[in-house]
Design a protein that fits this description.
Length: about 200
C-alpha cells in the first residue's frame, strides 16, 4: 500500500514539475515582455486593431495558416534570412499581441512573417489572392476568386479596384478587380505583417 502511495505521489510530482517548467514559468517570463520604443517614439510591435483584426479572422477562416508559417528562423537553423523572409530571426516579443498565435508548422508556401515589408503593394496582394498565377507563375496556392468581383471596363473604375488584363480576367476582357470587404481586411492584415524593426534580443 505504501508503495502505491509513493508511486502516485511520484506521478503527481512529475506532472506538477513538468507543468511548472513548461507552462507556468515560461508564461510568467513572457508576461513581462513589453513593446520596445525606438528613437522616434514608435513602439514595436504595435497592437493590431480595426480591419487588421478582422483580416486576421479571415486569414484563420480561409486556412492560410495551414500552408504558411509566421516565424523566421535564425541563420544557424535555416535559410529563411537568405531567402529574404526577414532581416533577423523572430523572437518572443514579436508575438506578444497575437491571440491566438499563428506561427504555423507547415511551409507549403513561403513564410509570411514579413510579407507586408516584402510586398507593400496592395495591388500585388489583391492580384495574388485572386489568382496567384498572375504574380507567381507556377504557384500551387489556390485562387480566392470568391473574395472578389470582376467588372468589365466601360465605366468609371470602382473605388479600390485594380486593373485586370484580358489574359488574367475570367471574362477574357480588360476588367476591374473589385475586392470584397473580407479581401480588403485580409490585405490589411497581410500588410501589417512587417517585423523588420530591430529588437535587441534578436541578435543575442
Amino acid at each position: 500500500m505504501n508503495r502505491s502511495w509513493s508511486f502516485i505521489a511520484g506521478v503527481l510530482a512529475t506532472i506538477l514539475f513538468s507543468m511548472m517548467g513548461l507552462i507556468f514559468v515560461p508564461n510568467w517570463q513572457f508576461e513581462q515582455l513589453k513593446p520596445v520604443v525606438d528613437q522616434n517614439g514608435i513602439s514595436h510591435p504595435t497592437p493590431p486593431a480595426g480591419s487588421v483584426l478582422l483580416g486576421r479572422e479571415v486569414y484563420i477562416s480561409e486556412g492560410c495558416l495551414y500552408c504558411h508559417s509566421q516565424q523566421v528562423r535564425s541563420a544557424d537553423f535555416g535559410a529563411d534570412i537568405q531567402r529574404g523572409w526577414g532581416t533577423r530571426r523572430s523572437v518572443a516579443r514579436d508575438y506578444i499581441f497575437d491571440r491566438p498565435h499563428l506561427m504555423g508548422t507547415m511551409r507549403t508556401g513561403p513564410d509570411l512573417e514579413n510579407i507586408g515589408a516584402r510586398q507593400p503593394s496592395r495591388e500585388w496582394q489583391y492580384l495574388h489572392l485572386f489568382n496567384p498565377q498572375i504574380t507567381s507563375p507556377g504557384s500551387i496556392m489556390p485562387p480566392f476568386h470568391f473574395l472578389f468581383k470582376v467588372v468589365d471596363k466601360g465605366g468609371p473604375a470602382p473605388v479600390g479596384s485594380v486593373d485586370l488584363t484580358a489574359n488574367a480576367s475570367p471574362t477574357k476582357k480588360a476588367s476591374y478587380l473589385v475586392p470584397s470587404g473580407r479581401a480588403q481586411d485580409l490585405v490589411d492584415f497581410l500588410m501589417s505583417l512587417n517585423h523588420s524593426y530591430d529588437l535587441p534580443e534578436a541578435h543575442q
